[in-house]
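Exercise 7 asks you to align residues with tokens for two separate proteins.
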Amino acid sequence: TAFENLRDAQRLAELPPWDPFDSEKEWGLGKWLAESGVSQARINQFLKLDIIKENIQPSFHNARALYQKIDTLPTGPRWNCEVLEITGDELDHLGKSKTEKVHFWQRDCVEAIKTIIANPTFKDHLRYAPEQVYLDEECTKREYEEMWTGDTWWELQVQRHCSSRLQSSNSAQGKLPVGATVVPVILASDKTQLSTFSGDKQAWPVYLSVGNLSKDIRRKPSLHGTILIGYIPVSK
């Protein structure tokens, strides 16, 4: 995977895991500054504080140097921009429908899925086979919680012939080829996160995750179980 390739390259070059930062603590500081949401001007002010310059002495002295380091880190699926022409329902002075060009930023969804599944952080939180969970030994009370406990995944991937009360015997591959698994794709957009670009352009962010990943991980933004894959442009 991409993560394994990065690890091997770092080991070959005898680089520490926190490269290009000087130490793990400096990496933590840079991560906090980048994710805090403060402006670059505020970051510059913070880094100019005497207590920071004299005691911590980070290798980056301003926001520009910090983001230059960040730009050398793996970025995941690359971004692509497509210019779309939208026809509205308003008419111009000639009686023709008005048009507007908008920028549609997007990332490859398949690459985003690969990034999530290949992330070693999630190795204990991913499921590749469905489960049927029952609350009683008679198998009369079914529990549905995670996506892999649902009927659709089961029907696609497994055919099971029950010969005991616990339905634990004789499994066979379902409609998928042997060795294949279901990857439920989850797309979401949050209307409270309308992003403002340069000028007066605006767009709705779109996020992707997969049902193979536990919902406890998906719903925690800090764990990065959800990836930003695009911006839906807002026309004027």
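Second protein for Exercise 7:
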Amino acid sequence: NPRPDVSKIIPASKLPDDITKIPDDILNWAVECEVTGKPFRIIKQELEFYRKHNLPIPRRHPDQRHLDRMALRNPRKLFERKCDKCEIEIMTTYAPERKEIIYCQECYNKEVIG
């Protein structure tokens, strides 16, 4: 990938956490990802969103943020478990050693919908 055409590249570690301290000209900069070192740009709509919600500028490249989210997903594998309420056998992505309460669809609907 070509490097973005920007006036400067700032390491993510140099960004202030306080969004109010981020100048408008960050739109002309690239931020260097704290994980990969890959530069990325902040667009106007993004900056407006972060300011509106008082969020800090991301320190990771969008591709890295996507990989981080994917790592939080359950594995694409099914396990046999028992419903924690009625004890029928069900298939779930939650491994047997995990602590979450697992319900079959019927018990889940009774619990959530009523």
